[in-house]
Amino acid sequence: MKKNNSFVFQGSKLKLARELKLWTISKLGEKLGVSHQLISDWENNKKKPTFEKLIEIEKLLGFPRRFYYSTAENIAPDNELLFFRKGAAVAVKYQKQVEQSGILFSIVASIVENYVNLPSFSYPSYSLRSKEFSQIDFEKISKIAISLREEYNLGIGPISNMTLLVEKMGIRVHFEDLSSAKIDALTLFVNGQPYIIINNQRISSVRIRFNLAHELGHILLHSSYNRTEISNSSNNKRIEMEANYFAGSLLLPEEGFVLDLTATNMNHLLQLKKHWKVSLQAIIFNGDQSGLISSRQTLFLRQQISRNKWRLHEPFDDEIPIEYPTLFNKAIQYVKNEKPDCMKEIVSEVGLSEEQIFDLFKYEEDKFAVNTNNHLKLI
Question: What is the architecture, at CATH level 2, of domain 82-88+98-249?
């Protein structure tokens, strides 16, 4: 993370705070009683707000004044490469909100990493690094998923904690309650470091696990593409299909799944859902794709799902625990407990209060007590 060593106003941080609140330039201008052009000039560092206007901005947007002057420099994602997992027709303001959420997370996380040794990410030998789009064979994708399982000694059974796996790989994960339930996830890269933002607003654990596996697929399969390649509608459709296939192959490896698929009736599949922690619809889809469930039985099962109104909310969705990120929760608490002076430095560099930083990482003092197995070390 670059540092802005001079104490100057950073307009990009005003834009970040505004877009997180889902406000347009015009709305902020109306609230402050200034023109659209003046807000634009502030955000583009052509002018800077007066002290009086900064006081108003602080109250309106919820960020302390020092945040806009903090030494941590706001950075755009590498090559503007973003992978959105979202429904159709999502308003641009919601896409900007999740992007800014990811950028804020990357700003704070990169500063915390200056004080604590955390797992670093590097592309495994089996990842694909092609810069030009081309369709990836599904069999090849399946082999990449198997290679990942082998590297982390996952065997052929269920992955116990998908979030923990991704964090162990050195990928930074953040859960956020986003305003639009149509956006499931976002992956962005800052200085080569991948960050995954997951929307956990009213979303089941099985859906979150699949979303994480899907985003991991983008990182391993598509992260060398440029934005133009993934913005092409036909390319994007194929890229999303490939990420979905990777997620299914990783979460439900055929070699292990076939051993458990001893029956294809709904009751048995629901038991498999609890065991594999994958949605009923994903189990049926994978069973159909691999030929383990007949086309006729697949149709019958999907009709049952429709009749029971399970498409959006399945049985056991509320019983399978959500696997929250823990890496930065533990890192923050470790710094606070072991060397509080470092915590003060983090607060100063980020420009947020200690409470705001804890809230960003879903800090819970009792839940994330430090122990000797954290593998965290002060630098």
Answer: Orthogonal Bundle (1.10)
